[in-house]
């Protein structure tokens, strides 16, 4: 009599581990995207604050060196903003890639579960066929051994 293969549960577990790993990677990527968005928002607000400070008429007149330092700091903030935007786009691309990886892992998991189920059904059919054959043999023997009228 045929038994279910031992490989299917192992393959299902391995596929499930791949799905779990992909889900963890997605969570990390989402955290990174959130962190970069928060950094971008902070830099934007800081830049706006310094720009307003520069444009206010009530601000005391700064010296030449202070004015240059102020403008240089604003330029550095803009550079940081651009860098964060670039990092953010890379993080979003990575997140999209991780989501595709998770989808592929889920497809693989469903495939392995389906194959395990098919194997179990095939084993059950074989068991039923063997039992039916044994019942038929017993019936034929009983018929052959019974006294004929």
If you had to describe this structure to a student in words, what would you say it looks like?
- There is one protein chain.
- The chain has helices spanning 7-55, 64-145.
- The protein is an all-alpha fold.
- The chain contains two helices and no strands.
- 88% of the residues lie in helices and 0% in strands.
Short descriptors:
149 residues, mainly alpha, 2 helices, 0% strand, rod-shaped
Radius of gyration of CA atoms, rounded to a whole number = 35 Å
**Order of helix and strand elements from N to C terminus:** HH
Which percent band covers the strand fraction?
under 5%
Uncertain runs with pLDDT below 50, 5 residues or more?
A: none
Main sheet properties: none
Mean pLDDT: 90
Give the class from helix and strand content and strand pairing.
mainly alpha
Count of helical stretches: 2
Overall helicity = over 70%
Distance between the termini: 38 Å
What's the count of strands? 0
Overall geometry: rod-shaped
Q: Outline of this structure?
A:
This protein is mainly α.
Blueprint of the fold:
Layout: H1 7-55, H2 64-145
Helix pairs in contact: 1-2
